[in-house]
Design goal:
Elements (H helix, E strand, L loop, with lengths): L4 E7 L2 H10 L3 E3 L7 E7 L2 E7 H5 L16 E5 L3 H13 L9 E3 L3 E7 L5 E7 L9
Parallel strand pairs: 1-4, 5-8
Antiparallel strand pairs: 2-3, 3-4, 6-7, 7-8
GO molecular function: dioxygenase activity
InterPro entries: Glyas_Bleomycin-R_OHBP_Dase (IPR029068)
Protein name: Glyoxalase/bleomycin resistance/extradiol dioxygenase family protein
């Protein structure tokens, strides 16, 4: 069996959050989506469980971080091109997200930019060209 990853993030409003991520082109697995949690499909083996805060709280005894005030995680997704990075950021901004930083140029090797979603979670997007990677020392 191939290892999978499920990133769990607390959210405030299920309907708004699903609409936000659908506008970026993500889909949801209806088998694991209800009014408490939504299983967003990133790829065949990567999923984000968007859990309303009271439900998220049942998985931990620690307080749930307010991602608009603190950073608990930065999720980084690879992209197939610089254009895809820019397109996803533009869609996020149009759907109510924010871009807290300017795009980052790392020569021909890497281009990155990101956004924060409606709940303040940081999403980094990166295009990497392995053929332009700096030589190993």
């Amino acid at each position: 069996m191939t290892r999978q990853i499920f990133v769990n993030l607390p959210i405030k409003n299920m309907e708004r959050t699903q609409a936000f991520f659908k506008s970026l082109g993500f889909s949801f697995n209806p088998q694991f989506t209800n009014d408490k949690g939504a299983c967003m499909i990133v790829s065949d083996n990567i999923f984000v469980m968007l859990l309303v805060e009271p439900f998220f709280q049942t998985f931990t005894k620690k307080p749930v971080a307010d991602a608009t005030k603190t950073t608990e995680v930065l999720v980084c997704l690879s992209c197939e091109s610089r254009a895809e990075v820019d397109s996803l950021v533009a869609k996020a901004l149009a759907a109510g997200g924010a871009a807290p930083n300017a795009p980052q140029e790392h020569g021909d090797f890497m281009y990155a930019h990101g956004f924060t979603d409606l709940d303040g979670h940081g999403w980094e997007l990166a295009y990497m060209n392995p053929n332009a990677a700096p030589p190993q020392a």
